[in-house]
């Protein structure tokens, strides 16, 4: 499979603490997984619900951040996951692992968990697969 063309937006599933840090300081290096792998893990919109169900089930402290890819320059790289799907990762220029900056965030929505289903305005009505 060929890697996808860079879309206008990618999405970050962010904890409330991470979103607060981003608003307070203007940047974040993400969570433990991001710091240990040296990149900020992102998703395309069609991947968000699957990622939520696979890694965040039961959490009610999440936000979905819509990220403008034009603000991330050449720092986004699509990499294949275990199931032959490509996910966007933000490394920064030259894979230098730079922080995700607040000015790249177009919109932030609180994700609600109702009956084991995640919902927010960025996801609602989009008929995305779970």
Q: What would the average pLDDT be, to the nearest integer?
A: 89
Q: Looking at CATH, which topology would you report?
A: ADP-ribosylation fold
Low-confidence stretches: none
Main beta-sheet annotation: 4 strands, antiparallel
Structural class by sheet pairing and helices: alpha+beta
Report the order of strands and helices.
Answer: EHEHEHEEEEEE
Task: Assign a percent range to the helix content.
Answer: 10-25%
What's the CATH C level? Answer: Alpha Beta
Q: Radius of gyration from the CA trace?
A: 14 Å
> What fraction strand?
25-35%
Question: In which order are the strands of the major sheet placed?
Answer: 1-4-8-9
Characterize the structure shown:
InterPro entries: DUF952 (IPR009297). This is DUF952 domain-containing protein. A four-stranded antiparallel sheet has the order 1-4-8-9. A three-stranded antiparallel sheet has the order 3-6-5. Strands 2-7 form a two-stranded antiparallel sheet. It is built from three helices and nine strands; from the N terminus they run βαβαβαββββββ. It is an alpha+beta fold. It is globular. The chain has a single domain (9-116), classed as ADP-ribosylation fold (Alpha-Beta Barrel). The protein has helices at 16-25, 32-37, 48-55, and strands at 9-15, 27-28, 40-41, 62-68, 76-80, 86-90, 100-101, 105-114, 117-119. The mean pLDDT is 89.
